[in-house]
Amino acid sequence: MAVNITNRQDAEAIIREQVAQTIFQDAPKNSVFMSMAKKLPNMTSKQTRIRVLDFLPTAYWVDGDTGMKQTTRQAWDNVYLTAGELAVIVPIPEAVLDDAEFDIMGEITPRVHEAIGQKVDAAVIFGDNKPKEWQMDIITLARQAGNNVASASGKDYYDLILGDGGVFSKVEDDGYGVSGAIAAMNFKSKLRGLRDTTGQPIFKSNMQEATKYSLDGAPITFPENGAFYPNIAQLVVGDFKQAVYAIRQDITVKVLDQGVIQDPETKEIVYNLAQQDMIALRVVFRMGWALPNPATRMNEDRTGCAFAYLEPGTPITTRSVTFTVKDNSAEAVVIPGARVDVNGAKIVTDSTGVAEFNLRAGTYPVKISKKGYLPVNETVTVASDAVTKDIILPKE
């Protein structure tokens, strides 16, 4: 005789599920660059000008009691911070807001803030999708100054980081001290166990301090916002206070309930907020940044850089861009010592009038100048091949 019971399957429809009243997620991550660089007063217009020391005076010994005293000069240059805009719109049906068990707006807003920080770090440090108004990214500026260190075989990480020719020494050779470092999370495993010549660890952790880790005394951060690209750099070190930024418009959140949303490419109307009972969360942020690179006694021609980086095993592909600078005489003569400025990256021409850059694909503004000559502004476009460009610098 069969014995019947009411089992779990029979009663499934009336068994209450326990739902945890939390959303499992990590905490939103802020911009690493903005936490380490120097913040200037907020911008009052789209562009802010910084006056930067460009040329240092020189003193001379006088030869004897009646020797002639020599003259010298000092000069300044302008560096501009231009505001780039980050913005996003999040459309939400009102019915979804009404039926949700959580504050959807409260959940979305901090994540949008995190996305803004991620975009800032990726653009400033690695040049990823940076606004065209901004200067070169930190990685490119360091590379043009010769401050990139290859992960050469036969060298351990102590030599690559702290040895002669390592990333720390590259920054110090240009007259700066390393105030901080950033690295990919998986770079921790390469730092553990590194010792100096006395056997003391150079990578230390301290849970008591605001910065949990240090590298040879400099705080090191491992960004968790997804904006560090280990395929471009394993480690970035530098004097972060030499980099400056200013905010034109702080993060502004506005809730829209009127208007339409169009596809950015086709311009086709995707949503009509009023007609479809929707709202849209619009977030806008505007800021500019610069690495002014003033003249110092250890870097008088301003071709150095306050940053250096350790390349991955396979460095990112760049193209050679060679400028040859000549005067405008009937039989053009090459000009050594001319400064070629490619969107903030500066190199002085050698004895043959040549300055060579290594650039990623893109179009760059170029300014060529030297005392006694009229400055020239050009553009250069880099694609898949090496580029050579002749520049004629007229005499004053």
How does this structure look, described?
Helices cover 15% and strands 33% of the residues. It has 396 residues and is of the alpha+beta class. Strands 5-15-10-6-9-8-7 form a seven-stranded mixed beta sheet, with helices on both faces. A four-stranded mixed beta sheet has the order 1-11-14-4. It has a four-stranded antiparallel beta sheet with strand order 18-17-20-21. Mean pLDDT is 87; it is low at 20-27.
Order of SSEs: HEEEEHHHEHHEHEEEEEEEEEEEEEEEE
CATH topology of the domain at 319-393: Immunoglobulin-like
Instruction: Characterize the biggest β-sheet.
Output: 7 strands, mixed
- Second rung of CATH, namely the architecture of the domain at 319-393: Sandwich
> What structural class is derived from the secondary structure elements?
alpha+beta
Tertiary shape: globular
Could you outline the blueprint of secondary structure elements for this entry?
Blueprint: H1 32-36, E1 38-39, E2 47-55, E3 75-82, E4 84-93, H2 94-99, H3 104-126, H4 138-144, E5 148-149, H5 157-162, H6 167-173, E6 180-183, H7 188-191, E7 203-205, E8 213-215, E9 218-221, E10 235-238, E11 244-256, E12 260-262, E13 269-272, E14 278-290, E15 307-310, E16 319-327, E17 339-342, E18 345-348, E19 354-359, E20 362-369, E21 376-382, E22 387-393
Parallel strand pairs: 1-11, 5-15, 6-9, 16-22
Antiparallel strand pairs: 2-3, 4-14, 6-10, 7-8, 8-9, 10-15, 11-14, 12-13, 16-19, 17-18, 17-20, 20-21
